[in-house]
Amino acid sequence: MVFEEKMIMNGEPEDEEEEEEEEEDMVDPLEAVRQKCAETEHCVHTQARLEQCETRVGSRSATEEDCTEELFDFLHARDHCVAHKLFHSVK
User: Fold this and answer.
1) Which pairs are disulfide-linked (predicted)?
2) What is the spatial distance between Cα 53 and Cα 48, in angstroms, rounded to a whole number?
3) In sequence order, which residues have a C-beta less than 8 Å from that of residue 59 and are 6 or more positions away?
4) What is the reported pTM?
5) End-to-end CA distance of the chain
6) Is 43 in contact with 82 (CB distance < 8 Å)?
7) 49: Cβ–Cβ under 8 A, 6 or more apart, which residues?
């Protein structure tokens, strides 16, 4: 009981809130690199093919086609770019 009172009087719970706020300001370098890589020419091309496929499949009422191949092509192109750039921004 005495320990709880000391915590309340010393303001330690407020310190925890400040630490949580600081953590929210951190930016994941992977997300930033993925965004930059998605804007490269090859990734834009594969993303356009993926969007065309999604439009085509979405316009049909009964189809067995899916866009798995196009999705994997886009993810492969983006991740290939990310692999070459990510570790330069990581400490």
Assistant:
1) 37-81, 53-67
2) 9
3) none
4) 0.65
5) 44
6) no
7) 70, 73, 74
Distances (CA, A) of 86 to 29, 57, 83: 7, 34, 6
> What's the helix, strand, coil split of the chain in %, to 5?
80, 0, 20
Produce one character per residue of 65-84: b if its CB has 16 or more CB atoms within 10 Å, e if not: eebeebbebbeebbeebbee
**Which CATH number describes the domain made up of 28-88?**
1.10.287.20
Q: Check if the beta carbon of residue 50 is closer than 8 Å to that of residue 73.
A: yes
Q: What is the pLDDT of residues 59-90, one digit of tens each?
A: 988 888 899 999 999 999 999 999 988 877 66
Spell out the domain ranges in the chain: 28-88
